[in-house]
Fold this protein.
Amino acid sequence: MSKSCFLRIVTFLLCLALGWQFWKGILALEPTQIIIGPAAHYIESAAEETGATNIVAAILFDYRALDTLGEASVIYTSVCGIAMLFAKSKFKISSTGLSFIVKRGVSFIIPFLLLYAAGIVLMGHISPGGGFQGGAVFATATILFCIVYGSGFEAVMIKPKTKELIESSGALMFVLIGFVGLWTGAGFLANIAAGYPKGEVGRFLSGGSIPLLNIAVGMKVSAGLSTIFYSMIKLLEFEVTKHPGVKNK
Amino acid sequence: MISLLTVLIPLTWAFLIPLIHIFRKTWLKRAILLFGIAVFFVTISAAISGWKQSALSFLGGWPAELGIVLIVDKLSAAFLFLSAIGGGAAFLASYGRLKEGPWRYYVIFFLLQASMNGVLITGDIFNLYVFYEVFSLAAYLLVAFTISWQAIEAGLKYLVLGTIGAFFILLGIAYIFMATGSLNMAVLSLVLPHIPNEALTVIAASLLIGLFIKIGAFPVHFWLPDAHSSAQTAVSALLSGVVVKVSIYTLLRLSLLLFLETKPAVFTVITVVGTLSVLGGHLMALRQEDIKRLLAYSTVAQIGYVLIGVGTGMAAGISAAFFHAINHMFMKVGLFIAAGHIAEDMKTRNIYDLRGLYHHRRWFVIVFSLLTAAIVGIHPLGGFMSKWYLMLAATKAGNVIPALALAFGTVISAFYYMRVLSFFYSSGDPPPRQTYPYWNLAIAGACALCCVFLGIVPLVPSLWKLVSDIGLNAVDTAEYISTMLSK
Amino acid sequence: MEILKFSFVFDKLSLSMAMLALFMAISISIFSLDYVEKKQAKERRFFVLSPWMFCVFSCMALFSGDWFFFGVFLEMSSIMLFFMILPLNFRTALYYLLTQLSGSLLVFVGAAIMIAERGSAAMGPVPPHLLWLFLSGLGIKTALLGLHFWLPKVHSEAPTPTSALLSGFSVKLGIYGLIRLASLPATDVLMVLGPSMALYGIIQAISQHDAKRLLAYHTISQLGYIVTAIGTGTALGIVAGVYHTVAHALFKGLLFLCIGSIEKAYGTRDLSLWGHGTARAFPVTFAFFLVGALAISGFPGMSGFASKAMIKASLKENSFYTVVWILQAANVGTVLSFCKLSYYGFFFKGDVVRKAPHYNPLLSYKKRIFQNTGMALLAFMTIFLGICPQLLPNFMGMNFGNFFETEALLSAIIPIFTGGILFIVFKKTLTPGKHKIYDLDFLLIKLYGILTLCPTIVAKIHTGKLRQYTIHVIIAALVIFFFLART
Amino acid sequence: MSALFYSFVCFFLILTALVASEIKDILSAVISLSVFSVLLAIAFVALQAPDVALTQAVISSGLITSLFLVAYSQTQKEGRRENDEE
Amino acid sequence: MTIITLSHGTAIILFCIGLYTIISKRNLFKTVIGLSLMESSVLLLIVAAGFVQGGRPPILPIEGIAVNPLPHAFTLTAIVIGASDLALALAFVIKLHQRYKTVDLDKIRGLRG
């Protein structure tokens, strides 16, 4: 026992030493009160440049839109990858879901949950929220279905093919909105400069392309995350094959 | 504008393939081939346009301080050219092998290519991190694509170590943001000299360790041999040839822009790690019996050579490093495709079982020995030329020990590569059935020819001027900053 | 990053060496016409053509204007010889390639440092602090005392035409490099190395029972002569060195060809199995062997005598009397061992008639015209140079008058007589027995054990456990943090 | 006042993290991880970052914890080959 | 000032705990938990970097000074990237369990040397 706990102490000291190095870096950086860099510009002129009141959404979907495109492709890769990893296992209806009372209660809550998710997505440019959060809430709704009603029920309602369709069409929508900016010569993913209606700041119909991008990302994230969940709970009858080319020594 | 397409075209292809799979299943086979070729030509044209005059494209119309700017100068144009050819070769090899197989493989392949081009042309540090994450995630999945137990285990180890590396890079970026507030690389290289020294140390150290994990330099390379040897043939060729070079490009771009004047110690660290990789990689390769694992350890050693070139921090060193990178890309893609095909065909990867291969796979063994001669560094082929210019640059920068490590490494690599060839040429047992694939042999042969051609490049003045321009352009960061912040 | 420019240097030294290379190539390709039977056509064509390829590369090396191209063509010629040794056994060929590769790589590192310091690695004296690099690099090529471990093994196990070419000319390329290098600090080192090489070669040669190995050790001792001549540093010394190089190349090539053709007939190199009437079976070969033996022992009228006389004269001129005495003792030893070789090799009847494993008398009587013409060419050249010794010095621009005056004749004949008498006295002890002789390469096998130790140490840290890998990541991170914080 | 509240949140953050890493049973480790995520969402609210708090709450404590539980149930289904000692 | 330094301190301690978990624990799930702890600590560090004492959330009708919105955008991206990494790690864990029938990290040593 003493050897392994000695090893533990040594590793803990190593981590602490690393943490100490990072702490020294932080002590050297005394935080200034005024905001330096482009953030100051974002706060003053986000309203008239993008028409959105939620500055974080303005940054995400207008000033640094390529980050969000990259992020959307991160989700897309992991969804496609996990689906590939679990492609060969067959889907069997396993659980019968929870008791009757829970089913009735959840069927009462689900519409409000979906409404809430739609609200987060659509109001992304006005209040805190956006495509990612809304899509994730929508995915939790589908997961709730699976747990409460048993995996069979939900699979019948939304077939994996339609989820793929929603996901890739959401991603394509994102890129097409961007191409409009490119086509009008104002640079990829341009918002007001590409002719999207800025509308009246603070209203529902404002913020140029930001609500459209929010919807696209919302579709993609919701379909993607529910595909991840559903490919993981498949029953794993399929034994992992040996590497086709390797003589296992 | 064309530089933006190198990212967008493969991305749209990746999003289109599921739709084609759902609606027009029959078109899938031809569509994937068409997509691959289109991506190759778009990247090549972007590289050429970026080479003539450094192309700039402002995303969303916002200037450099506000939004993200994509810039293709000579250095990124050169690496774009490298990734286009490597990616194209790997695509042809995988297309030949899988036909339209699991279509999700091609989705991830195009996403990897899109994010690779994104890393090469972006001018913003956080955007670099995001594309880097897409790129690593796609690499983890491609390693684990064959779903055999080795591939999954290698994928897990690659994922955990790669994510730890990504967290170190993210910490570095967080500290940069805390110190300066802005994220554009050009703005950073102007502002970074004025921040306190301890903060700069933390930034430099965390970025360095994160990138060393991602590149697979010696002290932290443990995932590389597992990942490159247990991956599928075309994937291991892609990983060794191209994916490693893009990580080295990131290290090169960051260290040149941020740490050239402020912290020159970074370059000594890179040289030391490079020397360690050379020695460690070659020593480990001596003991290998599995041919793909041997090639993977040889990649670790060749990374060491490129890092020695980068560590000089001078124009000569960087162009020598690029010349070795493109040489190594051709050699490794050819070697991995040839070795992978032989391993799959003979159902074994152990060298001792591959005895007497010369008698029934004559052309494969000839191409393999030509590539081995190139990678060991026999005179007329490219490998020797790049090693010579690396040695020149290292001695000019004053570090003699790396030059000696380079020489010592060449001798050891000659030893274990000749050992492999001795098994190929020895008299062997009767051959199993002969499946004569033309495409793998064609690709490996093409790579061998490119090695021969690259051997002549230093003798032709105009071609050599291209290579030395890369180093000159990369080192004078003032020109990069002026083009970025001019509009 | 300037472009590779090939510059030439034509002077007396490289011209004479090039003529020697041409002559050796002619005689050996004629010899190997007969050496390989008609039915192995492909191998025969290879053995006839390869001396010419070797001659082309070595001439390029001799005429190259800077150390880089000298190293390049040196490496190309050793690769050519690697292919010549390959048909017989692969391990010796690999052994030879690795040693020569490390030799030429050291020359490359030296040239790279020279370019870094002086801007150009022009052929000629080298900055003093680089001397250890160039000396060790060329030392491996010319088998200087510490670095001669490869010569006996490779020369004895190579096929006959290759070993004739090896000890004939490939060693001389290194000598040419040493001559180019002969500036002040180098000559003292060579003056010490020369005599010790001569003595060491003789001591090892006397106790050998393998014919070719005996000749190989004689090569080392003769090289000792040449190195001593260069070590004097004077113009006369260098011309004497060149003269002895030419002479040694001729008679050593002749000796190797004779012994090789007998070995081909007997199928073994062990002297104890030779000697029952070989002289009568191979009258022509024995005659050529006699010419070579007399030349090497410096019998007046042979080229050996003239070159040794010049060496002694140049030594006396700079009053190195002790060195002259050492060379005379070495000469006695040479005569002793050649008496042993001729007696036990050709005449000794021996009480126990031991048959060579597969001695076919048929071969000895078959007319071998080409083999004899090849040997005749070399023998004629040795005698011709012996008869009119002024030819080479005048060509080199040095008129050296007193070749045949009494004092030089006496100092040549006394060692021959003493050697003969000593042999008659110690005939019994010198019988080629089965005792084992220890040389440096026995040490090498021990060293090889230690060398394979460090890959196993490095392999220890590749335990496959992900937790170990993360610990290595953290330790590397901490080291980088401390290093960057310090600078 | 908010500084006091924030220091409580930070203390409980570190506490739940230690519990998540040290506890033997995997299920309770996952539960403490989701508590950790919720606490982190609260910390983000205290740091005036509502967007981030919402994302953290939904994705980290919602989806990732459910994926953890799915993975845990998959490994439990066929029972273990031999007991995984700690 | 105290909130920022406090949260930076917590973030670094969490980073150390995450690293420690990955190293010292043999169970594969604990490694994934360690990864998510490290990811959360980096998120906390970035968000706290943008905090301004007495600031208001960056929704436009701001009363008084606003908090720096840029780190919020990065944190959003970092959360999503971290989530997809963890999802993939869990997928690998399930697949590895299928083959090795155990989640003990020291038994998963097929590839070594």
